[in-house]
Amino acid sequence: MRQSWVVVGLVVSCTGATPAGSGETSSGGGGSGSDADSASAGSSSTAGSGDSGADGSAHVVGVVEKGPFILGSSVTLALLDDGGSPTGLSFPAQVTDDRGSYAVDLPGTLAAASASGFAYDEVGGALSGAPIQLDAVVVVEGPALEQRINVLTDLQADRARALIAAGTAPASALDQAQDELVAALPIGVGYVPTAAFETLGVYGDGDLDNAYVVAVGAAALQAAHEQAGEGDASAQLQALVNATAIDLADDGALQPQRAQIWHLAGQHVDTTLVLANLQSHAQQLGVPFSAPPLAAMFDHDDDGVDDELDNCVGVVNPDQADANGDGEGDACANCSDPSLPDGDGDGIREPCDNCMSPNVDQVDGDDDGIGNACDSCPMTPEGESGPCCDPRAAASWCREPDGAIPNTGCNDGPGGFTCNGLVDLGLNGYGDDCIGGCFGYGATCVGAGAFPARTVATGSSCDDGEACCSKYCTVGANTCGNGDGYVAPPTCLQYYPDGEAPTGLETLGICVDTTQGPCAAPGATGRICAG
Fold first, then answer.
1. Which of 233, 266, 297 is the last residue of a domain?
2. Is residue 10 situated within a structural domain?
3. 410 beta partners
4. Tens digit of pLDDT for each residue in 471-487?
5. What totals of helices (H) and strands (E) does the chain contain, helices first?
6. Torsion of the alpha carbons at 188, 191, 195 and 201, rounded to the nearest 10
7. Is the whole-model pTM more than 0.70?
C-alpha cells in the first residue's frame, strides 16, 4: 500500500547559503522511521483544509542519495497544477549534512523537484567528480511527509509525469511507473519491491527492498565506470540515467539495447566491494549501516538463480543439482579444490574457468561457453553468423550489422578484442602521427619506434621516436604494403603470442617495423612490442 506522496522533480546544486523559508532536520538518511519522526515533529500543528496545515502547507523532509549527496547541496520543489504543468512557484531547501538530509515547507499537494550535487560513488569508493542530477515525482497527502530522492525516483519521474499529463491520478501514476520500471529493468532477478521508491534508501533498513535501490544505483555506476575507463564516471552516469528515464517515459518499456547495457553492468557489479565502500563511508559519517542482501539482486552467471541462493556462482547451473547435499552445486564440485590449477590466477579454478585469461566475473555475453575475455565474437555464439569485432573485418568496419550496437569499435582489452560501445569511426591515415589516438577500423596507435620511419614525407610522416598509426593485418598475407619512402617496408607481425590468441584471431597481425626498434627483438609479438 502506498504511503503519503509528493510529486517532485528534483535538482540539487551546490550553494553556500540556506534558502529563506527552508527547514532543517537533524535526522539524516538513516532508517525510514527517523526522517518520518522528524517530519512529524517539525510540521504545522494548526488545522486547515483537508489534511494540510492552516496555511495549506506540508512539512517535507528526507534525504537525497546516489549515495548520499553532500552538505551544501540544495533541493528545489516546484509546484505543479493538477495536470502536472509547472505553476511558476518553487521552494528551495538546503542539504544540511553529508547524509543528504533536507527539509522544506511545501504549500501544495503536487510538485516537481530537480537536484544536482556531488554524491558518494559506492562503486569507485569516492565522491563524484562532477554534480549528479536526480528527479522524483511525489504527492503530499498530509501535514508531514518523508520523501527520499534516489536513482529509482529519478528513473520513475518522466514516466509518472507523462501519465499525470494524460489524466492519470498522481498516486496511481507513481504506482504504475514503479511497476513498469521494475518489470523493464533487468536488475533484481525477478524481485519486486513491496515499498514505494521514495521510502527506499542506500542507508536504509538493510532489507530486500533497500537492496534493490542499492543494486540499481550500483549497476548504473558500474556501466558508467566501464564507459569512462580510468576517468571520472559522473557524465556517463548522468547520460545513462537520463537516457533510461526518457526511454521509459512514453510506454514504460526499455529498448532492447538499453536493457542489455543494464544487464551486462549488473553481471559485473562486485557486491562485496560495493557494500564495503558503503560501510566505510558510513563510518566516516558516523552513522550506522545495515548491509542489505545485495547478492540477491544479481545473477552473475545468468542461470536464473540469484547469487545469494546460487550453490555454484560463476557456472551456469539452473537446476542447482547437489548430489551429496554439501551445499556446493555439482557444477562446482571440483572447482573449489585448492589443488586444482588456476592458470590465469583469477581465482576461478579449472575446469570451471570459461577463459584462460583473468576474468573473475566469468561474463559470457553470448552464452557459448567462451568467456568474453577470450571470445573474439562475444555477442554471437561460436559458429554462428552475426555481430563480431575482428579489426580486420573491412566489410563491417567492426560495426554490429544488426544495428543493436551501432558503430561499435574494436577495443583491445586484457583478454583480447571486445565490442566497445559507440566510438568515433573517423579513420586516421596509415602511418600518420598518433595524435589523440587512432580511432576507427584499420588504424591503431602504436608506441614510439614501432612503425617504420620514412625517408620522404608523403602526407604526414612517422619519424624515429614518434608514436604513429598502424593497421591490423593477416599474418602471411601481403597487406602492409611496401615502399612509399619507408626505410624498411612494414611487416605483418603476429599480434598474440602462440596459444594466447582468442578463437578466430590466431592469424591477427599488426603492421610494424621488425628491422629495428621494440618489434625487432627475437620472439616479439605485436601486442607486447607495438605498445
1. 297
2. yes
3. 419
4. 888 898 867 766 556 67
5. 8, 19
6. -20
7. no
